[in-house]
Design a protein that fits this description.
This protein has 405 residues and is of the alpha/beta class. 44% of the residues lie in helices and 20% in strands. It has helices at residues 3-10, 101-111, 116-123, 127-142, 190-196, 213-222, 232-253, 257-263, 267-271, 283-293, 295-308, 316-332, 336-347, 349-353, 364-379, 386-394, and strands at residues 15-23, 26-33, 48-63, 66-79, 85-87, 152-159, 165-171, 177-182, 206-209, 227-230. Strands 1, 2, 3, 4 and 5 form a five-stranded mixed β-sheet that branches. It has a five-stranded mixed β-sheet with strand order 8-7-6-9-10, with helices on both faces. Helix 2 crosses helix 4 (127-142), helix 3 crosses helix 4 (127-142) and helix 10 crosses helix 11. The chain starts with a helix and ends in an 11-residue tail after the last helix.
């Protein structure tokens, strides 16, 4: 084995090759430091005094399925220039760890496509070592993301099980998550506002959120010049919740057994978009019977379908006319549920129509990321280390799964 192979194969320079040993299926390369390459680790001076050396074994890139180790010595030196007494740098490895920089980079390449457990089995390294390598990398790259380029953001919360909620902030342009906060509501966003204040030149023009009063208050307080865009998905979702409750009340308040039998089990049919119903399975006919037998239910259902069409218009002017007409029809219907919802839409009128001012801005990309987060969490059977979980979320836009499955 030549010194050139040490450099090109393992990234080792400033050392000379001594010998190769084979023990229990492992390959051990013994190398020693060239005298002229030893420097002071503080000031990089060659004017040093050696004070002995300690043996060191470092895990490096495998050869096939064989574990490979580098055996060398770490010198303790005293610098005549800066008077420091330190262990000399190894060069090809971090002195705090038991593996080389090359192996570290190889692990980071693998975890982009494989789980930590898979990489651990593949390299015959402990799960904790693989995780620590990935966590250090994620901390360095994503712990403090650059917020200078933020222009349009989306804010939403995600439920993660027994640990409650996480509040997620996404950069709409890049698709990257720039902040993950504990809990939900305005308090969860306080660390984000604190970091954002350090970037004085950032001008966030629009923020996509749901109609949560806590988010509205927080955005108006900390981003006074930003336009709030109420996500159309959440508007329809809110109406669907009201519709579901309205159907339940109709079912509970009627004594007519025929009406009860027709209304029962129609929740999914009422909430599903009309174009997604399967006529061959009789879904359209069943829905039609329920609507024919109960006029208020039919009115609320068709108002729901009409509201969905508002976001299909190509321009804001027509959409504004559509929304205004919808509110007038809701008020004229005499149905309490519709009149209350009309007041909600009037209260958030400009924020709903702002969707057309910012290229159909919504929290849709963030909803997709939330689904990925849930998938990642299920795949890992949960995360004990919440800091690591948050870092994984912030790196999610660059994660690939080409080899999985």
């Amino acid at each position: 084995m030549s010194t050139s192979l040490l450099y090109h194969g393992f990234g080792i320079s400033g050392y000379r090759y001594i010998r190769t040993d084979y023990r229990e299926g492992d390959v051990i390369f013994t190398i020693s430091r060239k005298k002229f390459s030893i420097r002071c680790p503080v000031c990089k001076s060659k004017n040093i005094i050696k004070h002995g050396a300690l043996p060191r074994w470092l895990r490096c890139l495998p050869i096939g399925k064989k574990a490979t180790y580098i055996k060398t010595e770490v010198h303790r030196v005293e610098c005549r220039d800066c008077k420091a007494i330190r262990q000399s740098d190894i060069g090809f490895a971090n002195p705090r760890f038991t593996y080389t920089k090359k192996l570290c980079r190889y692990v980071l390449d693998l975890v982009r496509y494989m789980t930590i457990t898979d990489v651990s089995k593949h390299l015959n390294l402990s799960w904790d070592i693989i995780k620590s390598i990935q966590k250090r990398y994620l901390l360095k790259k994503y712990a403090k993301p650059n917020l200078n380029q933020l222009e349009r953001i989306a804010i939403d919360e995600i439920y993660i099980g027994t640990r409650g909620y996480l509040t997620v902030v996404m950069d709409i342009h890049s698709g990257a998550v720039v902040f993950v906060g504990d809990g939900k509501g305005s308090d969860a966003l306080e660390p984000f506002w604190k970091r954002l204040r350090r970037y004085r030149n950032v001008k966030i023009e629009a923020v996509a959120i749901d109609m949560s009063p806590a988010y509205i208050k927080a955005v108006r307080e900390h981003l006074k010049t930003s336009v709030i865009v109420f996500d159309h998905f959440h508007v329809v979702k809110l109406f669907n919740e009201k519709l579901s409750k309205f159907r339940r009340q109709l079912f509970n308040n009627t004594d007519n057994e025929m009406q009860r039998s027709v209304i029962k089990g129609t929740r999914w049919l009422l909430l599903t978009a009309k174009e997604n119903l399967d006529d061959e399975k009789g879904q359209v006919d069943r829905l039609q019977k329920a609507l024919e037998i109960n006029r208020p239910l039919a009115t609320v259902y068709y108002m729901k379908e009409d509201l969905r069409q508002m976001w299909n218009w190509a321009d804001k002017k027509t959409a504004k006319w559509h929304l205004r007409s919808w509110i007038e029809m809701a008020n004229a219907s005499g149905i309490t549920m519709l009149t209350k919802f009309a007041k909600t839409l009037e209260k958030h009128f400009e924020g709903i129509l702002a969707y057309f001012d910012f290229d159909c801005l919504s929290t849709g990309p963030l909803e997709g990321t939330n689904n990925k987060i849930k998938t990642m969490q299920r795949k890992a059977y949960g995360y004990r280390d919440m800091e690591f979980f948050k870092l994984k979320i912030m790196a999610l836009h660059e994660t690939k799964y080409a080899l999985v499955g």
